[in-house]
Write a structure and sequence with these properties.
Elements (H helix, E strand, L loop, with lengths): L2 E5 L3 H13 L3 E5 L2 H10 L4 E5 L7 H11 L4 E6 L4 H9 L2 E6 L4 H30 L11 H13 L6 E4 L6 H11 L7 E5 L5 H9 E2 L11 E2 L1 H4 L4 E5 L6 H13 L1 E2 L8 E2 L3 E6 L3 H6 L5 H7 L2 E4 L10 H16 L5 E2 L1 H9 L5 H15 L4 E2 L6 H4 L19 H15 L4 H8 L3 H10 L10
Parallel strand pairs: 1-2, 1-3, 3-4, 4-5, 6-13, 6-14, 7-10, 10-13, 15-16
Antiparallel strand pairs: 8-9, 11-12
Helix pairs in contact: 2-3, 6-7, 13-15, 17-18
Length: 457
């Protein structure tokens, strides 16, 4: 059943419309200000908002725009006492579906509502068909068919057309930016820019200028006004990699921009609106960073609406040879070299290795092997020394001890890592199984970083 919110500063008009539409079996509520409307929407989803163009705090046009930012499916019908072509154009630009001039009859309003409902139904059906078609197709940027990676691709498809912020977690080299690009490419924003920046690569002052832009004369080298990446992304996607490295003072400014959907360029006096969707990524444990006051809790909740955890390569061994073949074809296409095959001995060495650098390390390994190899084959000889000589760590069991005698600390670290692999690198589940808190888990992993390959900082 269609739910409607009527917003008008005239209580008599708002309640008259509410009661009339209720008699026609719509679910209708009426409020008298933009503030009330926004508060109502925070707790109740609606399908259609009928708003007067002139409200006390903000205009009905601005209200419709804000409502659509919070619930993208909402359709706005704007009502005005003095209809004009200029106002109608402004309403459509603000995202309103329809525009009516007072006096508004219940019949004319119902016709507009019925058109909006039909449009919503059509749009939802188109969206359903798009999802069905997309689900039948592989995602080009995400390679593999293991249960762990299938879970990632399933979640990517679900969140693609959402406006919710996405936080992608995973170790360095797992392909977090590729996942972000997949979300963008499957969304309605795919015809708009995908803009990426590594937050760890820039000092705080330069990072603020890159994200928010600056005006001419804001600092010594600011010879001209330059829009920031939020604005450059337009209605596309802004990807902030390594957000866990962002300084606290910059986190405050980012949080405010995300809350207001507006930003102020460095040295500027005027705030600028932006429409880009935000996707962030980190190889850090942000929950631990929040506990240790290195990352703001309010910003964490703002960016962590949907979390996509990308598994390390060692947690998806069944994908290793598929990824190897993918990189061989990709490199051969780029370089013009023949397609190489991997010998059985080389494949066994590659499968046994634990790939601390993940997919990025595998790609580098394949590229190196193809550059050094001959006869269109990748043999053990073309593999890096650390892979050729790698010995899979042995574990202590109840029935015996390993050939290599190791310390109790090393046994603990190896067991912690095995539990992480078994839980798909879910630190919360691993900590629960081990009977420790997340901070203790983090410390046990990093106490032996020189011995044990890192597991998702």
């Amino acid at each position: 059943m269609t739910s409607i919110l009527v917003v008008d500063h005239d209580p008599d008009f708002a309640e008259l419309v509410r009661d009339g539409l209720r008699r026609r079996s719509y679910i209708v509520e009426a409020v008298h200000s933009a503030k009330e409307a926004l508060a109502f929407l925070e707790r109740t989803p609606i399908d259609i908002v009928v708003a007067h163009v002139h409200l006390r705090e903000v205009s009905g046009l601005e209200l419709v725009s804000r409502l659509r930012e919070r619930q993208s499916e909402v359709l706005g019908i704007v009502v005005t006492s003095q209809g004009s072509l200029e106002t109608a154009v402004e309403a459509i630009r603000a995202g309103a579906y329809d525009f009516l001039s007072k006096p508004v009859t219940l019949a004319s309003l119902e016709v507009a509502i019925e058109r909006a409902v039909a449009y919503q139904s059509l749009r939802r059906e188109v969206g359903r068909l798009r999802i069905a078609v997309a689900a039948a197709q592989p995602i080009d940027t995400i390679v593999g068919d293991s249960p762990a990676i299938r879970e990632v691709t399933s979640l990517v498809r679900k969140v693609a057309d959402s406006t919710a912020p996405v936080l992608i977690t995973g170790e360095s080299g797992t392909g977090k930016e590729l996942v972000a690009r997949a979300i963008h490419d499957l969304s309605e924003r795919r015809h708009h820019p995908f803009v990426a920046i590594n937050c760890a690569a820039l000092p705080p002052a330069l990072l603020e200028s890159e994200l928010f832009g600056h005006v001419r004369g804001a600092f010594t080298d600011a010879r001209q006004t330059r829009p920031g990446l939020f604005v450059q992304a337009g209605d596309g996607t802004l990807f902030l990699d390594e957000i866990g490295e962002m300084p606290l003072e910059m986190q405050v400014k980012l949080l405010r921009a995300l809350q207001e959907r507006k930003l102020r360029p460095v040295g500027g006096d005027v705030e600028v609106s932006f429409g880009a969707r935000l996707i962030t990524a980190t190889n850090r444990d942000l929950e631990t960073a929040v506990e240790e006051k290195r990352f703001r809790q309010d910003l964490f909740y703002r960016i962590n609406v949907v979390q996509v955890a990308v598994p390390p390569l060692r947690a998806r061994p069944g994908d290793l040879l598929t990824l190897t073949a993918h990189f061989i074809h990709k490199i051969a296409t780029r370089t013009g070299k023949p397609i190489a095959t991997v010998t059985d001995d080389a494949a066994r060495k590659m499968v046994a290795y634990d790939w601390p650098g993940n997919v990025r390390e595998l790609q580098n390994c394949v590229e190196r092997a193809m550059a050094l190899g001959s006869l269109n084959r990748i043999t053990v000889d073309e593999l890096p020394t650390k892979i050729r000589e790698y010995r899979e760590p042995e574990t202590v069991t109840a029935t015996g001890i390993p050939d290599e005698l190791i310390t109790l600390d090393e046994i603990e670290r190896r067991y912690v890592r095995q539990v992480l692999i078994a839980t798909g690198n879910n630190k919360t589940d691993a900590a629960r199984i081990l009977g420790i808190d997340r901070r203790s888990l983090y410390r046990r992993l990093h106490d032996g970083a020189d011995v044990v390959p890192p597991v998702a900082d």
